[in-house]
Amino acid sequence: MRYMLKQDARFNNDDTQSQTADKVKSVTPEKTSTTLADQILVQIQTSIIKGELPAGSKINEQALAEKYGISRGPTREALQTLERQRLVVRAPHIGARVAQLTVSELNDLYQLRSVLEGMACELAASRITPEQLAKLEDLLAAQEAALIKGDTYFQEEGDVDFHYQIIQASGNKHLQETLIGGLYHLLRMYRYQCTNQNRPVKAIAEHRRIVEAIALRDGELAGLLMRRHIEQGRKNTELRLIELQANAAAKETLAN
């Protein structure tokens, strides 16, 4: 199993998009709009997270609609969802733009994440079911095996995300809504674009210790380990972001 963040295979070629459009014609208008918005959301979301739509770049709603061969309605719905996920920002007289990666935003985001995910770990230690624990351990074993094979490590979303599984195991719906609904994809963008190549091995070793603490039902230790893990991730991400910004500034200077 590879842990590279990847775009849904449904959108890899024009033939697939054509097949999707044919299927959409057979359903009700309400269902069509929702389905198209969801599909476009996945594509734009992935492009933003991977940096294919550059941070800070202007979003042209009409151009996106034309690119995917649909009306502006589903595109607008997708962009509204991306605004709620903070991947897209909208300003008066400027319009919609891809969220800008900044050190300040990074630190604010990780500070909040540390507190909330630490709490999620504490709750998971007392609430996790045997099935959830087994699933978490299986995921960790798969990640460790992937690293041994030399696979580059980037977490996908959902059930194949270590942090996602722990948040779900916390059993606290408000915590889940905040972390998964409000912050999750913005965090994925930072993690994807600014991961240090040397970080994955250390990160998975830290994951192992967190799982061991959860398995022992030691919420205090699990929460502490998670906060340390996130702080280490913040430091590495910050350094990588500063490096990327410096390189970009140097290229711009040379170009001018």
Description of the molecule:
The model is unreliable at 1-33 (pLDDT under 50). Helices cover 71% and strands 3% of the residues. Strands 1-2 form a two-stranded antiparallel sheet. It contains ten helices and two strands; from the N terminus they run H-H-H-H-E-E-H-H-H-H-H-H. With 256 residues, the chain is mainly alpha-helical. Helix 2 (29-49) packs across helix 4, helix 3 (61-68) packs across helix 4 and helix 6 (130-148) runs antiparallel to helix 9 (199-215).
Q: Any idea what the shape is?
A: globular
Number of strands: 2
- Which band does the percent of strand residues land in? under 5%
Largest sheet: 2 strands, antiparallel
Distance between the termini: 44 Å
C-alpha-based Rg, rounded: 20 Å
